[in-house]
Amino acid sequence: MYKSILVTLDGSSHSEEVLPEVSRLIEGCAATVCLLRVAPVPGTTSAKSTRERRFVAGPAGATARLEAPELLESKDQAIERLTEEIHLYLEGKARELRGGGIEVTTMVRFGNPANEIVRYAAAEGVDLIAMATHGQTSLPRIILGSVAQEVLESRIAPLLLVRP
What we know:
Blueprint: E1 4-8, H1 18-25, E2 32-39, E3 45-46, E4 54-56, E5 65-67, E6 71-73, H2 75-98, E7 103-110, H3 113-124, E8 128-132, H4 139-144, H5 146-154, E9 159-162
Parallel strand pairs: 1-2, 1-8, 2-7, 8-9
Antiparallel strand pairs: 3-6, 4-5
């Protein structure tokens, strides 16, 4: 029935509640599951924020100067670190599914979750998108959740929503 299923996870145990449902849904089928996590684009990280910059006294008689914060991690380094962390998380979940005989791939993306889910689903031609929904804001979104609502409105693929 399904050949390619996209499962979105946000790193929470809440989002992982979709996994048993997907396992039951594809039992006995030769479907491939892709576990996707979309994270916000990180910025640079510094040892001290601009408000915490300190004054350093110069040589005798010289005026004090403002010391710039020391960068701990560039944006590229942050993306690389987060990609590795998220990949390890996704691979842990993938191992559990693979133990049940399911073919699983993983993907990490950065940006707006709904946009990235839709882009991936369109590019890969998935048959189904599966996700847990939080449902925490305005009335339609109370039922679905904001990301789920945006993915549903894209009409890119059928959507399986699990509400824990």
